[in-house]
Amino acid sequence: MRKQLLFLFVCFVTLPVIIIYSVATVIFNRKADENLTSIYSNDIRSIASIAENYFSESLDLTMYPLLESNLYKYLITSSDSENFVEITTQANTILNSSPYVFGGNRGVVIQKKDGNQIDTHSNYLTSGHITEQQIEEATRLNGKCYWEYKTNKATPQFSITRLMKSKTNLQVPLGYIHVSISSLELRNNIQNSMMDKNSYYFIMDSESDILLSTNSDSNYDTVLSQYPFATLQQLAESRMNTVLDNQYFISAYKIKNTPYLIGSIHVSGMLASTKITLTNILTVTALLTAFFFALLALIFSNRIVRPIQELSHKMDSISNENFSVRAAVHGHDEIAMLATQFNKMGERLEYLYRQVYMQEIELKQSQLLALQSQINPHFLYNTMDTIYWMSKTGDTEGIGHIVSNMSSLLRLTFTPNGSNTCTLAEELEHLNHYVAIQQIRYGDSVSFKLQYKDDFQQENILRFLLQPLVENALIHGLKDCAEEMIIVKIYRQEHCLVYRVMNTGTPIDLELIPTLLDSPNAEQKGFALKNIDRRLKLKYGDEYGLKYMIEDAYNIFEIQQPIFGDPHDKTINC
Predict the structure, then answer these.
(1) What's the CA gap between 164 and 294, in Å, rounded?
(2) 146, 92 in Cβ contact below 8 A?
(3) DSSP label at 300?
(4) What are the strands, taking DSSP E only, across 256-359?
(5) What pairs with residue 96 in β-bridges?
(6) Looking at residue 377, what is its pLDDT?
């Protein structure tokens, strides 16, 4: 029952908890992935808007000389003009007071076609003039922006160089404008807007070079090595522009009007912490559920299994013939009904035991005593016959010995309480008196030898088994022989005491003995053997009885009784 309870507990508690935990984990992970993907997608758009505004203002600054009259006048006025110095001064003042410069976070150089230039004197300028390479690239792009990223005095910066043309004739170049942009300020603006300080934001160019980053962790560099510019550009063009790669969320967004894209890498810490929280909640729930059902199983066991076990123990007692046991009845449930019926059964069995079984025992006991009583007159008749013939011969001394042994033998035979059991020592004393009488009767024609074990002498055994067997061996062995040897062996075989009576002389008829034992007639022939066989079976059961055989010229009769003891062999020659 306890195994069934454990099986039910596993099936109805553990398995559902595991299934619920697995399903909840799958659903949560899927929803968490979708939600975090949406969150990080919106986040990269928000961060990208900061970079776009920053670059957009720089792009607007490259168009400022064409929109501001003093700066445009500077571009179209010849350096040889007599008022050129005044125009240059005014243009320089306007340029340094431009709101796009942000107090020096951007540097601006305007260079005319003839090489004359003005600038904002910003620390972010790479040099006091525009380089030949920048002029060549801007000329090649014919009005489009030429973007660069370099460092000046270990200060990283972005730069834009553009060819400026006449507003009235686009075929006429007026000069060049070069704008340098502080990447430190852009990084600070991005860092101030980061949703997670442990996240990694970066700007990458078309050569897959990282131009700006917010974190120096090398783990992010390893992740980015698997995502070149082309891959991130495809990601930026997708609807969600965010992908989950193992434990990292990777997002990308193309910065408008620039050759750059901005990306981010987020460790799914939020997901991991939520998973841990969910796992802890489910674990606590599972443990509480397991404890609750274990408590129920214990209560169920105490209420059902334990009473059933007690009933089982009491049934074992009844099977061992202890019919007085009764089960305790508690309550009015099915177990109480079962205990009540058990008690009724016990009472009925006790009654039947007393009325029927004990009567049968008494009947067997009376049968045993009746069989035993048959031995006494049978032996007495034979002994009196011996005394008669000795008196005929005038052997008074022999008659005296016979009468003395006969007196002791009768004292042992007629017990005061009529018991059919005795100790082995008493049975051996009875046999010795009988053998003494027979030695007087037959003299040297018969030799007796008795082999037994001292420790068996106090064992309780059935009376008068040895003397009838010896008598049978004596009478039938000397039928056609002048001399005879009779050997009586008593020994232990497992849990039985074995009597083996062996005699030489006339061989026994092995086919006649079964007929004598099974015969219902109470005739004198075979009386002793039949009596012994019936007494053994009445006392100990049908598996016990008389055995007979011939071995090495010996007639052998063997019987067994249940007994225990350690052998110490002793041999007596009678």
Answers:
(1) 85
(2) no
(3) H
(4) 261-267
(5) none
(6) 62
Sign of CA dihedral 515, 516, 518, 520: positive
Q: Is the pLDDT of residue 568 over 50?
A: no
pLDDT tens for residues 35-79?
778 888 898 999 999 999 888 888 888 888 988 899 999 999 998
Q: Are strands 484-493 and 446-453 parallel, antiparallel or unpaired?
A: parallel
| 255-286 as b/e: b if 16+ CB within 10 A | beebebbbbbbbbbebbeeeeeebeeebeeeb
Tokens of 383: 């002994």
Question: pLDDT digit string (tens) for 251-270?
Answer: 999 999 999 999 999 886 65
Q: Which long-range contacts (CB under 8 A, 24 or more apart) does 25-33 make?
A: 25/275, 25/278, 25/279, 28/274, 28/275, 28/278, 29/271, 29/275, 32/271, 32/274, 32/275, 33/244, 33/271
- Kindly give the pairing relationship between strand 155-165 and strand 173-182: antiparallel
- Maximum mean pLDDT: which of 255-269, 335-349, 516-530: 255-269
- How far is residue 134's CA from residue 156's CA, in Å, rounded to a whole number? 17
Strand partners, 450: 488, 572
Extract the tokens encoding 37: 């993907």
Q: How remote is the C-alpha of 398 from its chain's centroid?
A: 87
Share of the chain above pLDDT 90, in %: 17
User: Can you list the pairs that 287-294 forms with residues at least 24 positions away whose Cβ atoms lie under 8 Å?
Assistant: 289/13, 289/17, 290/13, 290/14, 290/17, 293/9, 293/12, 293/13, 294/9
